[in-house]
Amino acid sequence: MAIKQLTETIINQIAAGEVIERPASVVKELVENAIDAGATHIDIVTAGGGKNLIRVSDNGSGIPFDELTLAVARHCTSKLTDNVHDIRALGFRGEALPSIGSVSRLSMKSRIAEADSGFEINVHGGRLEGPRPTPMNGGTIAEVRDLFFATPARLKFMKTDRAEASAISDVVKRVAIAFPHIRFSIAGSDRTPLDLAATGAGSAGMLERISQVLGKEFPENAIAIDAMRDGVRLSGFAGIPAFNRANSLQQFAYVNGRPVRDKQIWGAIRGAYADVISRDRHPVVVLFLNLDPALVDVNVHPAKADVRFRDPGLVRGLIVGAIREALGQSGIRAATSGAEAMLNSFRRGGIEPVRPAAAQRWQGAAAVNQNYNVQQSPYRPFETEPAASHNGGGFAETVQAFLYDGAAALAADTRAGMAEAPQELLSAPLGAARAQIHSNYIVSQTEDSLVIVDQHAAHERLVYEALKNALHSKPLPAQMLLIPEIVDLPEEDVGRLVAHAETLARFGLGIESFGPGAIAVRETPSMLGEIDTQKLIRDLADEIAEHDTSDGLKAILDHVAATMACHGSVRAGRRLKPDEMNALLRQMEETPGSGTCNHGRPTYIELKLTDIERLFGRR
Asked: Which stretches are transmembrane (predicted)?
């Protein structure tokens, strides 16, 4: 078969297979072009999940008349200098518009500030028409109709209109977070309108934009991140461990303002939360990495979602270290969503609202106003010896006396078992212990809330942290093997392991090179007991090859520490004295990450007085 030159249309359609995967890919490319043009207002309109119509309008600088044809030509761009390593714009490849035009009906209208009118150009299935004059305001309008009409086989792989519309919303939200000074709006017959108003630059504007996308709960459950190492700066917000999700869709990462889905960044996030969140839960984070463009390659894939760092170990270490340090310094915090979930559980339990007819009878007990006086309430607690009944002692007097005696006996028992806590304890984050329920839950009181603590989960975290500190602060005891075990490995893996031999020795693992293709294991950590040495060494070699760290062994040791903590902690069902309960609360306040146990479950829930009053209809 003879070799022949492909036509320009076929070349663009092949490129479109990589750049334009679905309607959301088109929106991403067009929105990025608008941002690069300096737009401050971007409108997106879709129909049929983007398959029938995508229209992106902006108020950017526009495209000059004599450059319109170049804008839809392959490998033509205004965003790249002669240095391919100095990329400072979101787009730079010059492939998006010609790829879109080759598989759809593309219309481009644009007007620069100096021009008397705008100009329009059309590309239908790769066939160019125009440019010709058209009336319009400044900026650019890109309209894409009948996506993939020129390659109908691609339409078979599209999802439902609702799914494609949702993917478009997700793409816009991810881009919008990085540019809070730009207003984004999405509308169309296939969706609910979405308007993300501009919030301004700076950390305050950024946090407000993030709350627009992730919800108002996120700022209340997030910790600010700001760290720098060797010219790489990391900023953003990390959710507290108790504020997590069932998937990773609410994890956002940006490199020099570009939204990315980089496996190494996701791995670093998992590592930072490894021992504070369960494996099947995911933290909510928004991270921004800023570094010299020469230190990162964004030209790995045409979609520009993957990146490669020149020093991946530096980036991973910065992310893990910054998040862990922020979590450690944030003190003890419970997710605000925990109280809301608890309130919803009460509501689902069947607590009926007071009907209008009965509301009047309950008005004295339920209504709250500034003149409310508990001494005058008919529902106040018993305080004095009940008065004699008017009939000389009947059923009412008997019941009242019984209730009074029971309340007095309960109060006396409480005073005997629980001394009045000092007032200063009420101002502590977890307050003063008041009671123990079902021999497992500690109820404490602060100045404005009620706290319920799972004593087993809380003490499990305290023991686990103590074990980790002991493990990582000094070398672990090692047991020498009577006969060294030889593990055959590729030569490059042997070199990596030997380079980390000193670090591995701190964890009780003694290794040395045994020829060019083998490792001799002479010592193993005592606390691990009998282990599969061959599997351990191979897993470590794979871990070091991927991340150039020895985190694999640390994870094993942390897992052992977690198991020891679980069996060595205060068990459910153990009765605690008041001093023991208060001591546990104070240790929780001093221990980083004590808001969750080492399995990722919350250790306590806090209910504000306002939440409790809502349950009783007082608010």
From this structure: none
